[in-house]
Amino acid sequence: MTSAESNKALVRRYYDELWNGWRFDLAEELIDQDVSFRGSLGRMVAGRGGLIGYMKHVQSAFPDFFNSIEELIAEDNRVAARLIYTG
């Protein structure tokens, strides 16, 4: 698997398993502890715990929230994702 392919696989896991599956236990494996995150709700959070808290906030508001990956583009060590959210 090339670097671009493995990076795309990581992004798929992030959306499919962590978000769509609400698998908060995967955060330690998939998310850096010093992450900075700005969510779709316009809220900024810091750290892995902040991201998990944000996800739980989204889950409580939209228990059927779902990310559909429409397109992934990878180049070097970057991946861009085009998504559709439902919930």
Describe the structure.
There is one protein chain. By secondary structure, this protein is of the alpha+beta class. The chain contains 3 helices and 4 strands. A two-stranded antiparallel ribbon has the order 1-2. Strand 1 and strand 2 form a beta hairpin. The protein is globular and about 35 Å long. It starts with a helix and ends with a strand.
How is the secondary structure organized here?
Blueprint: H1 3-19, H2 27-30, E1 36-38, E2 44-46, H3 47-61, E3 66-75, E4 78-86
Antiparallel strand pairs: 1-2, 3-4
Compose a concise summary of this entry.
By secondary structure, the protein is an alpha+beta fold. The protein has helices spanning 3-19, 27-30, 47-61; strands at residues 36-38, 44-46, 66-75, 78-86. The protein is built from 3 helices and 4 strands.
